[in-house]
Design goal:
mainly alpha, Sodium/glucose cotransporter, two-stranded antiparallel ribbon, 4 strands
């Protein structure tokens, strides 16, 4: 390992030490109760909630996956995804955040998403809670695996280490840190990590544009690639076995630009629908100390998201101009942020910048593992099998679940050729279609019934698998992102089944009205 790599490693070790310090600091409070461990006792401030929600949501996908798409295919796919996510973020904070914070507190003081949905319908037989918890376990295991892939790619690229070893080491670190500090440590470190992420993006963006000769030079060079800067077209790398081909001068070969039509745009922007069903974001809404503080949180989150997404897309484009033939597969393209950081910063500074990837990955992985743990310990173990389980036993089941989920995620992440963007897109669709519609209808439609909620969740989650595996491969108009048809299908099923079944009790409807009338 050369001196530059050692300096990068030292910067990252310092960062990791700070994160561990946060976990140790909050360990005592986390151990006081399962409420503290799983939702921070509903005592989070507006800045921590805002930055924590976005940092845990974006993950290493923001610094690796999204720039990788822009590098490999150009502007359109990346920018329409970013636009959809920015709109979805704002609408989620505007409409869902306060209503969920109030409703989850009034509905039995729920501290998990399955808890809230079950309490919303006053379940005796915990059907909704069980289904919700199982979907969370499935999709968050996939999500956690994408974080471990990021770990592996980051450290194997930086230090020429074997992917599998560094990926497993990263997983062990995240589990240990989350095991100790729970939600409190996760939320506070997410706040810090959100700051590091936006600093890293801004630094790489500014230095990259400068090195490329300024904005006008970047635009001019990018336009020379067919479809690369088009909003309604897409660059088409000439591939052989997934590898982009080079011409006699070692320049990457692009074929004629592809078409990026209206249906594709709507499909891509539908990423924004996923926010309404993201447990890691919804849980942050539930954890804030005062519902009135969510207005400030919304503004902070919206600004952070717009800046971060825009910077990530431009970094991918600048990277293609500066290193046109460096990364020749879709998987390799996701390392462009790392390549730029190593090339344009002093090693120690590069280490701090690339700690942004580490920050993004840790902030997401700990959220995914923690929510998965709560789904099994609080909702399945205590909710179904041991209703009188002590708080201490729930805490230990949570921690055991952390380890089990992490092991499964590591197995999924063993393939170092995994494309982070694709792994995340599937899990994102799963959560968006399973929980998004039922959450919106539960919060804003009094007529929804328990049967409608159950049917909608199963329909949405099931359709993600059906569309992804059976329908989407057909191509053509059916080749759209699975979140859009699954979300729509779930909404239709909820409405039809609810209207065909008996209205919920007066108690449930009165509670709905009290939430609707709430003012603070």
């Amino acid at each position: 390992m050369d001196s530059g790599s050692i300096q990068i490693l030292i910067a990252m070790i310092i960062y990791i030490a700070v994160v561990i310090g946060i976990g140790v600091y909050f360990a005592k409070r986390a151990n006081e109760s399962s409420d503290n461990f799983l939702i921070g006792g509903r005592k989070m401030g507006p800045w921590v909630v805002a930055m924590g929600a976005e940092a845990s949501d974006m993950s290493g996908w923001l610094l690796m996956g999204l720039p990788g798409v822009a590098y490999f295919l150009g502007l359109s796919d990346a920018i329409w995804t970013a636009i959809g996510l920015a709109i979805g973020t704002y609408l989620n904070w505007l409409f869902v955040a306060k209503r969920l914070r109030v409703y989850s507190h009034l509905a039995g003081d729920a501290i998990t998403i399955p808890d809230f949905l079950s309490n919303r319908f006053k379940e005796n037989k915990k059907v909704i809670m069980t289904i919700a918890a199982l979907f969370i376990l499935v999709f968050f295991t996939v999500y956690a695996s994408s974080c471990f892939v990021t770990f592996g790619k980051l450290f194997s690229t930086l230090f020429d280490a074997k992917y599998v070893y560094v990926m497993i080491a990263g997983a062990v670190f995240v589990v240990a840190y989350t095991f100790i500090g729970g939600f409190l440590a996760e939320s506070v470190s997410d706040f810090m990590q959100g700051i590091i992420m936006i600093f890293a993006l801004a630094a790489v963006l500014i230095v990259g544009i400068t090195a490329a000769g300024g904005v006008s030079q970047v635009v001019e060079n990018a336009r020379a690639i067919p479809g690369f800067l088009d909003f309604f077209g897409i660059a088409t790398p000439k591939l052989v076995d997934g590898v982009q081909q080079l011409d006699a001068n070692s320049k990457p070969i692009f074929e004629a630009a592809g078409r990026y039509g209206f249906l594709t745009i709507i499909s891509t922007m539908s990423w924004g629908l996923g926010y309404f069903g993201m447990p890691q974001v919804l849980l942050k809404f539930m954890s804030i100390k005062k519902a009135a503080d969510l207005k400030l949180s919304r503004r902070v989150a919206a600004i952070w998201v717009v800046i971060s997404l825009g910077a990530a897309v431009v970094i991918g484009i600048v990277g293609r101009i500066l290193f046109p033939s460096e990364l020749l597969t879709a998987s390799a393209a996701e390392s462009i942020f790392i390549v730029l950081s190593k090339d344009f910063f002093l090693p120690f500074i590069a280490g701090i910048v690339m700690a942004g990837i580490l920050a993004a990955t840790i902030s997401s992985a700990d959220s995914y593992l923690l929510i998965s743990a709560s789904a099994l310990s609080k909702n399945i173990y205590q909710g179904l099998f041991r209703k009188k389980a002590s708080d201490k036993s729930v805490l230990w089941i949570s921690r055991i679940t952390l380890v089990v989920i992490a092991i499964i995620a590591v197995v999924i992440a063993l393939d170092e050729n995994s494309v982070i963007f694709k792994v995340v897109s599937f899990a994102w669709a799963g959560f968006g279609a399973t929980f998004g519609p039922v959450m919106l209808f539960s919060l804003f439609w009094k007529r929804i019934t328990r049967a409608g909620a159950v049917a909608g969740m199963v329909a949405g989650g099931g359709m993600v698998f059906i569309w992804k595996l059976l329908i989407r491969p057909i191509g053509g108009a059916l080749g759209i992102y699975e979140l859009l048809p699954a979300f729509i299908f779930s909404c239709i099923v909820i409405i039809i089944v609810s209207l065909l079944t008996k209205e919920e009790s007066k108690e449930i409807q009165d509670e709905f009205e009290s939430v609707k009338a709430f003012r603070e």
